[in-house]
Amino acid sequence: MPIYKKGWKEDLGNYRPVSLTLVPGKVMEQIILSAITWHVQDNQVIRPSQHGFMKGRSCLTHLISFYDKVTTSLVDEGKAVDAASLDFSKTFDTISHSILLEKLAAHDLDGCTGWMVVPKEWW
């Protein structure tokens, strides 16, 4: 049964599904996560400036890093700075899974790993 999050109750996008994943599935998810995390870190696929979805990093660490870079490189030189912040909270609701799989393949993740990422509805 979907659980209501916020907003207009008639909008299905304002509900989150309940996931009852079996233990073997959770174990497999952790194995895949470990393999992907190792690959990404070992091959420096993600830049150090990436803070979202990274262990030990957050929006706050990103703001601190941004503030530090702006103040040390621009403000200290007497230059004006304008900044804008955007909210992409529903970005991944519309992601193209075929493009995602192509990106995984481009970073040398094998077909077996890519197959594991394919949504259950595609089986």
Total beta strand runs: 2
Gyration radius from CA atoms, angstroms: 19 Å
Percent strand equals under 5%
- Classify the helix fraction into a percent range: 40-55%
Shape field: extended
Low-confidence stretches at least 5 residues in length (pLDDT < 50)?
A: none
Lateral strand order in the biggest sheet: 1-2
Class based on secondary structure composition and strand pairing = mainly alpha
Mean pLDDT: 79
Distance between the termini: 23 Å
Along the chain, the helix and strand elements come as: EEHHHH
The helix count comes to 4
Q: Describe the biggest sheet?
A: 2 strands, antiparallel
Key attributes of the depicted protein:
123 residues; mainly alpha; 4 helices; extended
Can you characterise this structure?
The chain is mainly alpha-helical and 123 residues long. It is 42% helix and 3% strand. The protein has four helices and two strands. Strands 1-2 form a two-stranded antiparallel ribbon. The longest helix is centred in the N-terminal third of the chain and has 20 residues, at 23-42. Residues 7-112 form the Reverse transcriptase domain. It comes from Grus japonensis. This is Mitochondrial enolase superfamily member 1.
Topology:
Blueprint: E1 3-4, E2 15-16, H1 23-42, H2 59-73, H3 97-106, H4 111-117
Antiparallel strand pairs: 1-2
